[in-house]
From TrEMBL, chains A, B:
Disulphide linkage map: C62-C99, C253-C304, C479-C496
EC main group: hydrolase
An example Gene Ontology biological process: ganglioside catabolic process
EC number: 3.2.1.52
Protein name in UniProt: Beta-hexosaminidase
Keyword Disulfide bond: yes
Signal peptide location: 1-26
Single Gene Ontology MF annotation: beta-N-acetylhexosaminidase activity
Xref: Pfam families: Glyco_hydro_20 (PF00728)
């Protein structure tokens, strides 16, 4: 996964201008190597075009690149309507995208990331003329998994809000959209197999759901931007809304000897539960093509299980004693097995790892709890399992914008461990939970704070250890986000040439 | 200022429906008296009209009311395009706006507030049909001054962002827009007399300024909504941007015996300073009609004054010793005198009061410092001066949305003092400073948290002492704000029938 991408600009036939290196040479996140020069070339939107390198195995017809060319042409020249993928014109920018030769998913991302870097290097002078300084970049991401979680259950997020987030993720080179699509409060995923889940479990059966078409649109929008979509169907806890449309799925809670009328986590002792989960996950894996699926497993409240006589009998039969973590592990083992049969790698929240110390199945552990999160990373990697780190990047709770420095200063590998252990840290993820967040405040709460995590996950840690050096670059990048229509809040006093116009 | 407004709905000829009192009878802020009944009347957008009461001295032609009728017709019936002020139709809602008889500013506000209450009582049933429960309201504001400060210097706010804020203020019955229009970082006010101030002091001389037309538009938009515009030209500190366009206004700082090239607060020892300030304030009072003007006076850094030999000589001559608070008081006294000559009441930040213990001029003191702010309120009222309380309502620093409860629990009169002292507390104000705020995050940071302060300033404190009782009403009011296009963030998990569509 360390395939490198060289990006050089060869610009024959363009006037070389006098000029210096701009004060802020902002590529965010910082490339592994970037060499600027004072040589400045002017760019003409009429003559500019993207061309596949002669050495590239990819030709026109690769939709991801073709569409990226069109998109980035418009991002570079916002005044122009589009175009830029034809093969006429006086000047060429010959993007030597070596990585293009291999079209599997990771390299694809690198290609798009190269276009993003290129687009960030184009500046406008005081007269509005576009130019680029001669630049050589060698780049690759430090971590392969650079995620962002959205929670569409606590508040419904309209499709447009998700698509906009994907746009901004691509600009920041985040490459995994972790879709925490359902949870206790609502079930907006419209299942083909179990339509009652959203019909009875969504906030509204028509206006507050994601249809199959919506989901496809999200996945396609993400794919074209080099972003994977990791769907999470969290169980056995966080499933209150599931119970509305799937009777007998949840555990009936008891008050003394009688059912209290309330329900707890998924009932782990019924065969019907596993039939349902297998059917649901089979559908989910047919809809979401990513090789990972997130199975949740966090924060299971055992009190309802404890109250239920059938569960207690089962515990006894299984020899679990009074240790309900064993019951959860039993359930999760079954769900992970289903996922494995469906040819998916499972991701689970750290609770699952913590509860299950022997014969753990192979899963990726997402570390989310606060405290010594690197201690947990160390434990998980010591057990030979892969880790995604989320703890330090819970951005849903608002803080002052300058909190970005806290997110920036995270050191994901600063734990005692072998090289093998470090390699098991596949990346990290920004979490935007939905208790206090919906479409009204999602964007300014995410951006630019999430960019700090994005650079930490992409760039070399030593080269990007200074908050002071990052500040002007991030300020500049935030203005670029505004110009691209992302409602990113300000870092501090000041202004952008193009202020936010979305009021 | 305690003029009361009775609002009763007489609805002849309308079908009386079976129905109950809706679970949340949300009028926000809570009226002084509200009596609901289960009698429900259906409303037809085709037949509905506003009519002046027979006892009202106001007839058509009062633009504030005529335009408010049109506006509230559309707010009540969003599907209808407009209209509703004609005099035909089968049914009447006869709004008995007694207060209408007197058209001075405070009563005007009450009238509009009555329309706002009415609009909040109209509900739609499951079939979309409009109805209103028979309701009797007697209402008046607890405090006359219910302000909201926007800072357009640290970040420029586009005109549209200000107008939207005024809309939301009217919905919340906030009635003073405190425009902190200039400060250190930029001077966006385009002065007729001193055009260089914005030309050289704004972030950009064309895109980041408020022209005279812009300012008139803000004042008119506010007036039509019963909102006063209190302009602040803060000096002698917070004036760095002024110096760009007005040479010799600021104090040259010294390093040893030589000027350092940097500048400090306004130079208080030059006649030219007072000529300039008199001219500027004369223009300002001709542009802003409100009887109050805010003169600032906060956070003056004395280090530059201390370094300047001319200032030191002046201090000696005046017998100020080394007490620079006396120099600031000397300056503020002169500025307050200018304002008095211009027939304006001055508002100043508490620093001015704190520094000047004898022979204080008559001004209104705005209390902004944290700590025992009620101690300060007590001191100011003991000195016989009016107070505006801002300390507990600094909303610019983000907090979790549930901070609203903190703003709600403020008790502005909970200090030991006489009845006379309490009457001197004319109100309070929400402050939205601009360090971390611009058009990208202004609305969700303000709303609905500012609504908590709005209710505290309008409603009876005893009747509105419970956060738990306020929560469902505020949740409901926040959905109403969304429906009206205000980007108000969520209080907690849940949804609105009409989600925010502004993405």
């Amino acid at each position: 996964m360390s395939s490198r991408c060289n990006l050089r600009f060869l610009i024959p036939g363009l006037a070389l201008l006098l000029g210096g290196v701009p004060s802020v040479l902002a590529v965010w996140p910082q490339p592994q190597q970037i060499r600027n020069s004072a040589e400045r070339y002017s760019l003409s939107a009429r003559a500019f075009l993207f061309k596949h390198a002669d050495v590239s195995a990819v030709r026109s017809g690769c939709d991801v690149l073709d569409q990226a060319f069109t998109r980035y042409f418009t991002l570079i020249f916002p005044e122009s309507g589009g175009g830029g993928t034809g093969d006429t014109g006086a000047a060429l920018i010959n993007t030597l995208l070596h990585c293009c030769v291999y079209m599997h998913s990771w390299n694809l991302i690198l290609n798009i990331s190269g276009l993003e870097s290129l687009s960030q290097l184009v500046e406008q002078d005081d007269y509005g003329a576009y130019y680029i300084n001669k630049t050589e970049i060698e780049d690759f991401p430090r971590f392969q998994f650079r995620g962002l979680l959205l929670d569409t259950s606590r508040h419904y997020l309209p499709l447009q809000a998700i698509l906009k987030t994907l746009d901004a993720m691509a600009y920041s080179k985040l490459n995994v959209f972790h879709w925490h699509i359902v949870d206790d409060p609502s079930f907006p995923y419209q299942s083909r197999k179990y339509p009652d889940l959203s019909k009875k479990g969504a906030y509204h059966p028509f206006t507050h759901i994601y249809t199959q078409t919506d989901v496809r649109r999200v996945i396609e929008h993400a794919r074209l931007r080099g972003i994977r979509v990791l769907a999470e169907f969290d169980s056995p806890g966080h499933t209150q809304s599931w119970g509305n449309g799937q009777p007998s799925l949840l555990t009936p809670c008891y008050r003394g000897d009688v059912p209290s009328g309330t329900y707890g986590p998924v009932n782990p002792i019924l065969d019907s539960t596993y039939v349902f989960m297998a059917n649901l996950l089979k559908e989910v894996t047919s809809v979401f093509p990513d090789s990972y699926i997130h199975l949740g497993g966090d924060e299971v409240d055992f009190s309802c299980w404890k109250s239920n006589p059938d569960i207690k009998a089962f515990m006894k039969k299984m020899g679990f004693g009074s240790d309900f973590t064993k019951l959860e592990s039993f359930y999760m083992q079954n769900i992970v097995n289903i996922s494995t049969m469906l040819n998916r790698s499972s991701v689970v929240w750290q609770d699952v790892f913590d509860y299950h110390e022997i014969n753990r199945p192979r899963y990726v552990v997402e570390v989310w709890k606060w405290g010594c999160y690197l201690c947990e990373v160390r434990r998980v990697t010591k057990a030979g399992l892969k880790v995604i780190l989320a703890s330090p990047w819970y951005l849903d709770l608002p803080g002052p914008t300058h909190d970005w420095a806290r997110y920036y200063n995270v050191r994901p590998l600063a734990f005692k461990g072998t090289e093998e252990q470090k390699k098991l840290v596949i990346g990290g993820e920004v979490c935007m939970w939905g208790e206090y967040v919906d479409a009204t405040n999602l964007s300014p709460r995410l951006w630019p704070r999430a960019c700090a995590a994005a650079e930490r996950l992409w760039s070399d840690e030593v080269q990007t250890s200074s908050v002071d050096q990052a500040f002007p670059r991030l300020t500049d990048f935030r203005c670029r986000l505004l110009r691209r229509g992302i409602q990113a809040e300000p870092l501090y006093v000041g202004h952008c040439k193009n202020e936010y116009q979305g009021i």
